[in-house]
Amino acid sequence: MNAALVTEYSKFVRAMVPRATTLLLVLGISLICSAMLLATDTDDPQLAAKLGPLLDPGGWNGYFTLAAQVTAAGGLIGHGAVLSWMFGREFAEGTISGLFALPVSRSTIATAKLAVYLGWSLAVGIALLVTLIISGLVFGLGDIPASAVPAMLRQLVLTLLTGAIAVPAAWAATLGRSVLTGVATAIGLVVLAQVTVVSGAGGWFPIAAPGLWAISGGAEVSATQLALSLTVPAVGAALTWHAWRNLQLDR
């Protein structure tokens, strides 16, 4: 297992896809929120309506509510893209056949890939939170009040949960033997989450629950509903592990 972890980690840190996605998630989300902050000084009622939480409740809490909205959608696609690349690239680049000659089982390789991915997701969550705080300070939100700390913690948890619920993309990329299959699955999950939130059933849909929980400050999602979101990575990881364990070259 250690050898598989070292190998997958080495491939991961040297690749362009994880690096680019990290920058897009961390800097992209922060820049979007910062740009919205700059736009708050406006007399345009239409623009003010679009700014939403930055004006009501405003301040740090409104800032992190906006960040949660962006993270819930963009974060899922970004995490799904990285997972799709990690598992789909072996087929796209033709390296999958070489894995059958290794003394390490394919299921162990899949487990190592998921472990490296989860470590990366944690690093992204921490980096994004720090960058958001720095951006808020730079663009004039002032000192961070104690009342904003729960919103900051929800932002970190949301990023981690968003990374977790993207795990089915790894299974899809394996079954489809394609990076695009995994990415399409991640996009499909975002669409389903949006539909369930609009219908009012978002709290009971594990894909939508983390984002709705963070955006509403925990008011619209119970602890039980949020805990259900953990079934998604559990089932997704199990299916991915099983698919790699029974992987065949002829199909």
UniProtKB/TrEMBL annotation:
TM annotation in the entry: 63-87, 114-139, 151-172, 179-205, 225-244
A Pfam family matched in the record: ABC2_membrane_4
Q: Which UniProt keywords apply?
A: Membrane, Transmembrane, Transmembrane helix
Record bears the keyword ATP-binding: no
Superkingdom is Bacteria
Q: Report whether Membrane shows up as a keyword of the record.
A: yes
Q: What is this protein called?
A: ABC-2 type transport system permease protein
Q: Could you read off the lineage of the organism from its UniProt record?
A: Bacteria, Bacillati, Actinomycetota, Actinomycetes, Propionibacteriales
